[in-house]
Design brief:
16 strands; four-stranded antiparallel β-sheet; alpha+beta; 17% strand
């Protein structure tokens, strides 16, 4: 019997899917599917600045009838994986690739409206497509993350019914959100919508639709965004604190300000309330001048994100993100990469190209992997390694399509993947300690040894020492200019 077979048999009980295990072991992303399914489930904020389900009302009643239904709508406990769900939706779609799932076509491109493009994170095609769906009467509204005036929050899911509201929801939000209340509203109002979210959120919506005919009738389209990983509130607060804005005073943040530099060299702008309760803005800071912007480090990453193997949003009608490809690095306007699955969306794209509203380049499917190569390695090879560790420690983890020992992973890469997991975990608790001490330096100095170790293993220590020195100098300049 193989080592893989032995480890799976030994851990069969440990990996039984259960929403209770998902929540208790810290794998919940707070999407809201369980709350939509069962009103007694609340979505609450954790002490580390992320969302999770609160199942205490169910446990109080020991409701064994409800819990299995919740297991089947949770993206990390459902017995149905992305491949099964996607095959049900797209079995007539002509193309399939192991890295992206089913697909009609792959494109890179951007919207030709300069204003719309400039106000987007990359090429502006997410917003442009949503506008087309509304103008053509295919949907009544969009469910997406947008700025909110809800106390204590910067962003939240909202139901956008006008074109202006849709446009206002453009750009990436590296911030925790939950869709529970908005999807309940969609069901009540019977509003035809397009849903926009990261892959695990889209999967949960698909699972809800499979068990809820009324919701299935109104969710007309699902848009997925390529996702490196989800962040807790600490990520936004860390960026603000480096610029002299205390986490308690942070009022707004724009994570993706274009600045006429290379596509990946964008800036971040934060807003705050002054003593007169007026909203003020700091000058946009280039991310290369800010500590903690290397996504490989995984600062403030949610635990579940290390247990997700769906990079390309395989259950969505279209998946879009940044075209991180060498040939487009110098395009400061930004470009999208698109994986198209729904024929309606493909028709709209082709029509927009003919009318010169958008620019599209057809690409081979391999370009998707190339544009997200580091993400694929971490979520496929890395997931293999993390499962080996979990199995050796007999700890529970979600069942995934990638299994332990699927890959031959060099020892140095195994150390890097496991160190990333440690860095993510510690970033939450160390930052909480820095906030308690009211001293950002506590976070910097306690995380520095892990960061040094990470770059040493990656053989980038010399270069990154210079980079960190520059970033720390910029931090000090901002601190003393305050």
């Amino acid at each position: 019997m193989s080592q893989n077979s032995i480890s799976i048999q030994q851990n069969k009980r440990a990996i039984t899917p259960s929403i209770k295990q998902v929540v208790e072991q810290g794998f919940c992303v707070g999407c809201g599917a369980c709350s939509v399914k069962e009103d007694r489930v609340r979505i609450i904020e954790t002490e580390l600045g992320s969302y999770q389900a609160d199942l205490t009302n169910l446990q109080a009643f020991d409701d064994k009838a409800v819990t299995p239904a919740l297991d089947q709508v949770c993206p990390f406990s459902s017995s149905r994986d992305e491949t099964e769900i996607a095959h049900t939706l797209y079995n007539q779609v002509p193309n399939f690739d192991a890295t992206v799932g089913h697909y009609q076509a792959v494109y890179t491109g951007f919207v030709n409206d300069d204003d719309l493009r400039s106000k987007s994170s990359s090429g502006g095609l997410v917003t442009w497509l949503l506008i087309q769906l509304m103008e053509q009467g295919k949907i009544d509204a969009v469910v997406h993350a947008s700025e909110t005036d809800r106390q204590g929050e910067l962003f939240d899911y909202r139901l956008s019914r006008t074109l202006e509201e849709v446009k206002a929801g453009a750009k990436s939000k590296y911030y925790p959100v939950t869709y529970a209340e908005v999807i309940k509203q969609v069901k009540r109002d019977k509003v035809r919508v397009a849903f926009v979210g990261v892959p695990c959120f889209v999967k949960s919506i698909r699972l809800l639709c499979e068990t809820d005919p009324d919701l299935n009738d109104v969710v007309q389209y699902c848009f997925s965004l390529f996702c490196g990983h989800l962040k807790s509130k600490g990520f936004a607060e860390m960026i603000a604190w480096q610029q002299g804005v205390h986490p308690d005073n942070l009022s707004s943040i724009d994570f993706r300000v274009k600045n006429q530099q290379k596509a990946h060299q964008y800036s971040v702008q934060v807003g705050y309330e002054n003593n007169q309760k007026q909203l003020k803005y700091k000058a946009a800071a280039p991310i290369r001048s800010l500590i903690g912007q290397d996504w490989g480090l995984g600062y403030f990453k949610l635990k579940a994100c290390d247990w997700c193997d769906d990079i390309a949003g395989e259950t969505a009608d279209i998946t879009l993100g940044d075209a991180w490809l060498p040939e487009y690095h110098n395009d400061s306007g930004g470009r999208n990469i698109l994986v198209v699955r729904h024929p309606d969306i493909l028709t709209i794209l082709k029509s927009g190209q003919k009318r010169n509203q958008i620019t599209l380049n057809k690409e081979p499917v391999e370009k998707v992997y190339q544009s997200q190569a580091g993400n694929y390695r971490h979520r496929h090879e890395g997931l293999d390694v993390r499962q080996r560790k979990a199995q050796s420690e007999q700890t529970w983890h979600p069942v995934k399509r990638i299994k332990a020992y699927d890959y031959e992973v060099p020892e140095i890469r195994q150390k890097i993947y496991l160190l990333r997991q440690e860095i993510a975990e510690k970033s939450h608790t160390v930052f909480a300690g820095a906030k308690e001490a009211n001293n950002f330096n506590v976070f910097l100095f306690k995380m520095l040894p892990l960061q040094i170790k990470y770059y040493y293993l990656n053989r980038r220590l010399a270069k990154q020492t210079l980079v960190y020195g520059y970033q720390f100098l910029q931090y000090l300049i901002r601190k003393f200019q305050k």
